Amino acid sequence: MTTAQFRRAALPAILLVATACAKPDAPNDETPVIKPSVIGRAPLDTAPGGKPVEVFTITNGNGMEVRAMTYGAIIQSIKVPDAKGVMGDVVLGFDSVAGYVKESPYFGAVVGRYGNRIAKGRFTLDGKQYTLAVNNGVNALHGGIRGFDKVVWDAELVQTDSTTGVTFSYVSPDGEEGYPGAVTVKVTYKVMNARNELLIDCEAYSDKPTPINVTNHSYFNLAGAGGDILGHVLTLDADSMTPVDTTLIPTGKLADVTGTPFDFRTPTAIGARIGADDQQIRFGGGYDHNFVVRRAIPGPGPRGARERTHHRPHAGHLVHRTGGAVLHRQLPRRHHQGEGRHRLSVPRRLLPRDAAFPGFAQSAELSEHDPEAGDDVYEQDGLRVWGGEVMGWMMDDR
User: Fold this and answer.
1) pLDDT on residue 354
2) Is 361 exposed, middle or buried, given 0-12, 13-18 or 19+ CB atoms closer than 10 A?
3) Which residues contact 116 (CB under 8 A, 6 or more apart)?
4) Cα(86)–Cα(261) distance, integer angstroms
5) Helix, strand, coil: what percent of the chain each, to 5?
6) Is the separation of the CB atoms in 112 and 143 below 8 Å?
7) In Å, how far are 25, 42, 114, 192 from 350, measured between CA atoms?
8) Is 5 helix (H, G, I), strand (E, B) or coil?
9) Which residues contact 121 (CB under 8 A, 6 or more apart)?
10) Any idea of the CA torsion for 375, 389, 174, 111, to the nearest 10 degrees?
11) For residue 86, what pLDDT band results from cuts at 50, 70 and 90?
């Protein structure tokens, strides 16, 4: 793909839907009362270097609460009611900035410029080779030593008739971590007023060609605080996955999951095969791989008024059988990744871009673009990308 093919790459949005303790549908002659969401803004801490960090707390009338901070545009917590109406935090995080600085494996952060690994920290673009900061063995991971997760973002409150949220923005200078071009990135977190949904919308603009692959890196544990996710039941509509080498770089092949520990096409506990005698399981220390999603699949069926009104297709499901929570993953393109045994990370990531693997050439490149120039789009393989794409998670009670 050449940069002449497009001028703008607006990154797909992420959607989280959390529903629990749903009440029966109201009679037709009743109009449901929609309570407006509220947002609080407060100082939290200071980042390395002394820059102040703020935290935003968004709460809707259904009981959902989302906290996000300007450091790393991190989602610090997502609290939703379980099947019994008990509130619980279903993502991993720390109470202070110091925790994220000291030991966080990208908990809740926006990662970039490039989410996932770039082999040996090198890539070639328009005939020129670029060398990146290496921070994961011999490879570059999630943007480098000081990626988007380690900077303080600007913030602006946003509100519509149906949502309340905050837009985080950051300007990555030309040459940061070795990447070409100055890139302006905006990430918006919006909570729906009428139902428990969190929408995450990402967009980026550059003044010269550059690779971009931005995502949110939240880790989910539907059991709330404490415990692992080995008993969570996972379903993924993925016929294949990308095998990796010992440094977790894809080999360039797509492997059929049939008969392997990576076959989650039917509901399977995450811990059922995580200890299998399998080379890929050993390389990843469990599941640290890309799953190639074949197509969206329908949800497991209506289980409450709110879920019945939600008809978006899903690419996978994660079920916590004891607590009764279900996490649905909606994904319009072909990617899924899980990490860890006490949490599940399912960021949307594009297939790795590498000149050696032309079939993987699907990560976006940004060419020079004026944000005011209009709705130019990026088109590849019949897919048109602009600001309206949605993917994400849905959670409901069982």
Assistant:
1) 45
2) middle
3) 141, 142, 213, 290, 337, 349, 352
4) 34
5) 10, 40, 50
6) yes
7) 39, 35, 10, 27
8) helix
9) 131, 132, 133, 134, 138, 139, 140, 178
10) 170
11) confident
Residue 1 corresponds to which amino acid?
M
H or E element, residue 186: strand 183-192
User: CA dihedral in degrees (321, 327, 331, 335; nearest 10)?
Assistant: -60
Partnered with residue 211 across adjacent β-strands are 365
Q: What angle do CA 147, 151, 157 make, to 5 degrees?
A: 125
How many residues are given for the chain? 398
φ, ψ (nearest 5 deg) of residue 381 = 55, 35
Could you give phi then psi for residue 262, rounded to 5 degrees?
A: -95, 5
Alpha-carbon gap, residue 108 to 89, rounded angstroms: 13
CA 325 to CA 22: how far, in whole Å? 12
| Whether 125 contacts 365, CB under 8 Å | yes
Q: Which residues are 256's β-sheet partners?
A: 240
Task: Return the higher-pLDDT residue of 379 and 147.
Answer: 147
Average the pLDDT over each of 40-49, 83-92, 138-147 and give the range with the smallest value: 83-92
Q: pTM, whole model, 2 decimals? A: 0.77
Residue 264: other Cβ atoms inside 10 A:
26
Residue 308: what are its φ and ψ, rounded to 5°? Answer: -65, -25
Half-sphere exposure of 69 (CA within 13 A, CB side): 29
Please report the sign of the dihedral spanned by the C-alpha atoms of residue 17, residue 23, residue 24, residue 25: negative
Position 395 pLDDT exceeds 60: no
pLDDT of the residue at 351: 53
Helix (H), strand (E) counts: the chain: 3, 30
